[in-house]
Description:
- The protein is α/β, with parallel strands linked by helices.
- It has four helices and 13 strands.
Amino acid sequence: MQSLSKQRNLMSQCTELIVVTTPDWNSSQGTLRRYARANIRMPWKAVGEPITVMVGKNGLAWGKGAIHVDAQAAQPDDPVKKEGDGRAPAGVFSLSKIFGYAVQAQPGWKMPYVSLTSSVECVDDTASKFYNQIVDRSTVTPDWNSSEHMLRPDDLYRWGVLVEHNSNPAEARAGSCIFMHIWRGPGQPTVGCTAMPQADLESLIGWLDPRRSPLLVQMPEAEYQKLRKGWSWPKIDERAAGSTIEDGHKSIGKR
């Protein structure tokens, strides 16, 4: 586990933040908001309008992310992410890559891109050495009995973002193959990912810039409020895009 100082340094490098909150642990619907800041000394500013997203059919559960906020906020009865539990991970997660059905990403997109083909799979077999990895079956010796074919017939992965949950290294049975992707429709939850309309996802992907160390903060609203000031996250606010988000630019580490 990274030291607290390294985790705080990771947060201080972040100038693009995606915040997804739900009403409670068991809610399958949430709200996504984007924020940006010029540097650690500047306040967060809202980007775009809040959008409705769908998360796991059974809600959220504490996952394994880049910053271990669960160690500060978790209560004994809080759910913990497990393979196949139908919950999306709660916590703070790095966003490393985007993917899609096209050979190349759309012009202007900045994140590293993975083109999906019929041989690309995400391994969810907990006994595999490739567990929780996106791999091209044609380039490795498969040792798994269970995986998700990324080139889906339903277009949900036409575009997507890889959420770095339970990685480096992956812990068996702690959850795998977590993405932000296109939803099936309003009110239709996922089995553990965060889904939204295609137009909103495309806008989000076009905004992401790896040079700005983007992070995803995802958790029930009550947990977000407990942790917000200590990690200098923005105050959730419904004001228009571009307005300054007050109270979210205190130095890292103050509580």
